[in-house]
């Protein structure tokens, strides 16, 4: 069994380098979409089945509306930059769950969840677009898969290809890599470089989607204010808000606005 895992690991390592279209850099990723997406879709459905999905409210409609605009912007950006069809195997879905946790995430293949607990910090559609752009950027750049790839090699063979992950510990590892959270373990933080990358990509996507990129820094200021005091909620423990992030977003806003202008977007809602 150990030898099979080793061979599988070596095979995966050879095919593990993938160029990130947003940065042009090669990244370590053991998981092709064809392997990771079925797992993600199954975990997503399981999550929705175990949580209270909000339907038919103005807030639920807002999550869908922002999600459609963000995903469409990502597709337009990729097509314009030489990656038409890059998201063809994505199956976008946007759900709001009733849960006071401050959290939001996007699983591989475009499976998004917002928790009602993050909405007061978003303060409306533009704030939702900031968070959604950022989370979608993590998915587009395969940060979760890289996070798993950087994990214990032994476990990779055990999880890869296992569509319905029955073992709670393995499922927990998968979910942690995508920020889904669970009572079983401590959340894995994204690395600072992944956070910075997601901030920059997310900012451009939200601007192309027609949302004011100058509002992104304001959202993270509110996150920072919220995280003061007690133990930080899950989203803040994986997304530590700091002055560097806020300064970066402020500095990059004109660049994002200029990018949006290339797509004919010159005013923001
Ligand atoms: Zn992040």
UniProtKB/TrEMBL annotation:
Residues 71-252 form the Peptidase M48 domain. GO terms for molecular function: metal ion binding; metalloendopeptidase activity. Residues 1-18 form the signal peptide. PROSITE patterns: PROKAR_LIPOPROTEIN. This is Peptidase M48. One of its GO terms (biological process) is proteolysis involved in protein catabolic process. It holds the Pfam family Peptidase_M48. Keywords: Hydrolase, Metal-binding, Metalloprotease, Protease, Signal, Zinc. Its cofactor is Zn(2+). GO terms for cellular component: membrane. Belongs to the peptidase M48 family. Binds 1 zinc ion per subunit. InterPro entries: Mito/Outer_Membr_Metalloprot, Peptidase_M48. The keyword Iron does not apply.
């Amino acid at each position: 069994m150990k030898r099979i895992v080793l061979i599988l690991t070596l095979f995966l390592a050879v095919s593990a380098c993938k160029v990130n279209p947003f940065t042009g850099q090669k990244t370590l990723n053991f998981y092709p979409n064809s392997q990771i997406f079925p797992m993600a879709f199954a975990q997503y459905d399981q999550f929705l089945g175990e949580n209270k999905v909000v339907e038919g409210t103005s807030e639920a409609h807002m999550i869908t509306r922002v999600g459609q605009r963000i995903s469409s912007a990502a597709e337009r950006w990729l097509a314009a930059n030489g990656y038409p069809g890059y998201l063809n195997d994505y199956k976008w879905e946007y759900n709001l769950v009733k849960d006071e946790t401050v959290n939001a995430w996007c699983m591989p293949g475009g499976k998004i969840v917002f928790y009602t607990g993050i909405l007061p910090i978003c303060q409306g559609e533009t704030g939702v677009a900031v968070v959604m752009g950022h989370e979608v950027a993590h998915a587009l750049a395969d940060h979760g898969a890289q996070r798993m790839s950087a994990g214990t090699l032994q476990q990779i063979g055990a999880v890869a290809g296992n569509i319905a992950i029955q073992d709670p510990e393995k499922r927990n590892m998968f979910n942690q890599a995508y920020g889904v959270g669970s009572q079983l373990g401590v959340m894995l933080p994204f690395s600072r470089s992944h956070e910075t990358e997601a901030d920059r990509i997310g900012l451009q996507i939200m601007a192309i989607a027609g949302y004011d990129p100058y509002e992104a820094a304001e959202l993270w200021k509110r996150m920072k204010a919220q995280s003061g005091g007690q133990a930080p909620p899950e989203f803040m423990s994986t997304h530590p808000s700091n002055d560097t992030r806020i300064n970066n977003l402020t500095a990059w806003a004109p660049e994002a606005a200029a990018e949006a202008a290339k797509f004919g977007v010159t005013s923001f809602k």
